[in-house]
Amino acid sequence: MNNIKVRTKLVIVMVIALIALALCTVISNTSLSGLGNNALDIIENDMRSSYDEQIKAQVDNVISLCQSIYNRYEKGEYTLDEAEKLAADQIRDLRYGNNGYFWVDTYDGTNVVLLGNDTEGTNRMDAVDTNGFAYMQAIISAGRQENGGFTDYVFPRENHLQNVLTARHLNHLAGYLEPETTRTILMRTYWV
């Protein structure tokens, strides 16, 4: 190494320094990218968790509405048919946000409330999303859990069939007027 010119030694040192700098840059970018992705995952999970809690609270309010109507039925203020119609009509009219609504299906997949459209009274147990996922079976299964649950699936947004979004539903058990005999799942849709 003593026989190498100073200029050559400087070039070798500069090349080694540039290689080290490039290696540090690659490692730094990889680390920052990983941190950025991790931060985004944490933010998304936090937002979803917070929103999920809000949804659960709103569904619980609908359940309280049903329970109140059921209590009045038990006192003789309504017949069972009147109480069921009143609960269905009130749920049908409830809205949240810009396009949100509630619907009700029984455990066998029969739709009780869905905006008053032709779906009401039909069985949706075998309904699938745009990817072929049996979402109603998953929703009902999650709804049978002690504290309800969430189901994610892909569904075309109304009037925007080309704009396919992921729908997420909170499923929660609710006594639909006859808590001991007819168990119903109340769901609230939101788009992610």
Structure description:
This protein is of the alpha+beta class and 192 residues long. The protein has three helices and six strands. Residues 160-166, 170-185 and 188-192 have low confidence and may be disordered.
Helix content: 40-55%
Can you count the helices? Answer: 3
Distance, first to last CA: 64 Å
Label the overall shape: rod-shaped
Largest sheet features: 6 strands, antiparallel
Number of strands: 6
- Unreliable stretches: 160-166, 170-185, 188-192
Order of SSEs: HHEEEHEEE
What is the typical, i.e. mean, pLDDT? 75
CA radius of gyration is: 28 Å
Task: Note the main attributes of this structure.
alpha+beta; rod-shaped; six-stranded antiparallel β-sheet; 192 residues
